[in-house]
Specification:
With 168 residues, the protein is an all-alpha fold. The protein is built from six helices and no strands. It has a single domain (2-35, 42-164), classed as Orthogonal Bundle (Arp2/3 complex 21 kDa subunit ARPC3), CATH 1.10.1760.
Length: 168
């Protein structure tokens, strides 16, 4: 019983820390004007690779995105659809972790590159073509999720099992 309780607490703490760090890094990206818009590199999206190490990254990413969007002045459509994109990305990354670590960021890149341009176009009224925003948002996601995310993965790969201590 104690082990199950300990595992649950550890899961909640990990998800909370991931969410808090996601919010903090999104606010830093926002200060640089990169957290939203047609051209965005949301540095916090690098945390998508944490789904390789722990299932707690799934709620951590979703809650972090929700709170970050809520506190950076996004409209409700963005708050909800952005959270959905982060949730889908983290779930997909978690599912692909056993295939290859290089596939873990892919669902995050695709979910955001597909969903966010619709939000920008129809909720915010950006007049750019959807395919153009798909490319710009996708490029930002590649920088954040793949470049920064894989740097994070390689920094954690030797100690990640000890840090996260949850079943893979």
């Amino acid at each position: 019983m104690k082990n199950t309780t300990h595992t649950r607490i550890l899961f909640i703490v990990q998800a909370g820390v991931i969410a808090a760090l996601y919010v903090a890094l999104t606010h830093l990206s926002n200060l640089a004007g990169l957290a939203s818009g047609v051209i965005q590199v949301r540095v916090s999206e690098a945390f998508c690779v944490l789904a390789f190490f722990t299932p707690a990254a799934i709620p951590g990413m979703a809650i972090g995105c929700f709170l970050a969007n809520l506190t950076t002045g996004c409209i409700w459509a963005d708050i909800l659809c952005g959270t959905l994109a982060s949730l889908l990305g983290a779930l997909g990354g978690r599912l692909l972790r056993k295939v290859s670590v290089w596939l873990v960021p892919l669902p995050t890149v695709l979910a955001n590159a597909i969903i966010v341009p619709f939000v920008l176009k129809y909720a915010y009224g950006f007049e750019d073509a959807w395919w153009f925003m798909f490319l710009t948002v996708g490029a930002g996601e590649i920088i954040a999720a793949y470049v920064l995310g894989m740097i994070l993965y390689f920094a954690l790969r030797k100690t990640g099992d000890r840090i996260f201590r949850l079943d893979r």
